[in-house]
Request: fold
Amino acid sequence: MIVTSAQLRLLHVSDVHATESGALYGEIDTLSRLADVAEYARAQELNVDGVVITGDLIQRGNQGAYPLVDEACRNIEATLGVPVMTVLGNHDDPEAATKLRGHEAGHTGVTQVCGTRIVRLNSQTRELGEEQLDWLSNLLSTPSERGTVIALHHPPAASHMPVLRKQGLRDARAFMRVIDGSDVRAVLTGHFHHSQSAVIRGIPVFTAPALSYHQVMHAGPTHVSGHNAAWFSLVQLSPHGVQSTPIELSPGAPVFTQVATGA
Ligand SMILES: [Fe+2]
Reply:
């Protein structure tokens, strides 16, 4: 009950995998889902202060989709009246992605939202590298009014899926060393296409489920299996803590709907 007075609410969306034309895997309209997430947040009065999209904005090879992603992000901003902040994932193309607003001069950045500093990092190559970590270290040497949230694609925590176990951030230890003892209140990631929460060095690391397809945990030791399901998360920061709630965009039919008792 203590995380009810949110200082900051963020929609955490990940792994859009937008295509230039046609549906992803012949059936997934990823760009429509971006619009649907915004409409969901508006209709359900989630009252978010910003939207963070943690990478794989396009499906690899679909560089022509960036203008469409950009347009979709602008539409989200118009629907919700809040900024949309994006980072690159391993499917993204750093050169073509300069067509996105906020990426013209580079793929890192800082946005202040309600006193919280949102830092966008670029792990497109699966690592941050010394130069970016030095920049981050220097940035964090001055705390923000209400702390910092970091967004990047690759989680610094391992997945439980056997084939994804070694697909996290390559220089995770160096990254966590840099943010240890800073004002970072949460790290938001994607990439695994399944939700995951971890606490590393006392800092929450939330991996959002994917908007495009969900990778199930029972695919076996050598396979990945993507299922047509669209998820995102609602991240809330309060004076007392941080929480992340995965939300399914279009769940199955209800087995019951009734007035809650004992609320
Ligand atoms: Fe992805």
User: Anything to note?
Assistant: The longest helix spans residues 66-80.
